[in-house]
Write a structure and sequence with these properties.
186 residues, mainly alpha, 10 helices
Amino acid sequence: MEKVNTSASVISANVNSIPLLNGTNFKDWKENVSIVLGYMDLDLALRTDKPPALTAKSTADQKRDFERWDRSNRMCLTIMKRGILESFRGSVSDEVTAKEFLEQIEKRFVKNDKAEISTTLLNLISIKYKGQGNIREYIMEISHLASKLKALKLELSDDLLVHLILISLPSQFNQFKISYNYQKEK
């Protein structure tokens, strides 16, 4: 009985790790859905097309494959719909496969590079080191934001990034800032 509870806990934790799709996080939402469904071995319906309908002449293997795909499709749809605001769910037909559902959602939330650039740039210029935690992790976070901008075709120079980091540091780093600013070399 404990194994069932553990399995249910793991499934619940996996499903709960999928962020709620809110219109601006489609890329992260889709990545999380793909990881969770893949980890749970439920992504067959996303990776393959729907098999032909069963007939009286269908073999045992065809029946098994169809049942596996059908279960995967139902579970994928259930998990994806759980992670979407109800107002978005109504815009997609109920008569679609999980793969088609994901494609329709993707069309609706097609990546808007301008909005993503604005959001990432805003995060980059407003981030401040609070004096807690590892300074290296803080600098890596800024570097990650710069990498996201570069992937969106907005590349910032290394000098600009260094200055953004220095500006964002609190007064306890003033001596470091002065030392950097008075260096003769870049």
